[in-house]
Amino acid sequence: MRCPVCADTDNKVVDSRLVGDGAEIRRRRECRECGHRFTTRERVEESFPKLVKRDARREAYDRRKLLAGIAKACVKRPVSAEAVERLVERVERRLQETGEQEIDTRVLGERVIEGLAALDAMAAIRFASVFRNFRSAEDYAAFIATLRDIESDAREDD
User: Fold this and answer.
1) Are 74 and 123 in contact (CB under 8 A)?
2) Cβ pair 56, 33 in contact under 8 A
């Protein structure tokens, strides 16, 4: 690590601390050349597969978009922000575990529906209605009929 003052690479770590949820390390360093102290942060670089959209476009995975979509489905529902965060982490972990370079957005959406079904049925219905593009009451009825199976499968996976 280069000193921001003198650009020398010889420095020592004075203090290290985990930040937030432990996904980041904050290090206080001291340059041996000029004595300047500075802070660095280390974070694991996560790589997610590219998402293949319905129209065959490829798009980088965006955690904020996923969080926003789930949050919209959970508006005025008894689902905590922590539960939403845990759901996103589970979905991300499953994405990484596939080992694939590309993954269809349908797979991602179905994973979210499964997770939401275990948290709150209404949130799952809301998300599915947008994701699956429901057009009629029959679409809702068909989804609700399968919701019990989805809920039980999701609980078994956790």
Assistant:
1) yes
2) no
Amino acid (one-letter) located at 87: L
Q: How far is CA 77 from CA 11, 65, 86, 92, 124, in A?
A: 51, 19, 16, 23, 11
Query: Do 78 and 107 contact (CB within 8 A), yes or no?
Result: no
44 pLDDT tier (thresholds 50, 70, 90) = confident
pTM over 0.70: no
> Tell me: the pLDDT tens digits for 51-105?
999 999 999 999 899 999 999 999 999 999 989 989 998 999 888 888 889 999 9
Which of 68, 31, 63 shows the shortest CA–CA distance to 46?
A: 63
Q: Would residue 7 be called left, alpha or beta, if left means φ above 0 and alpha means ψ between -120 and 50 degrees?
A: left
Please report the pLDDT score of residue 104 as a whole number.
Answer: 93
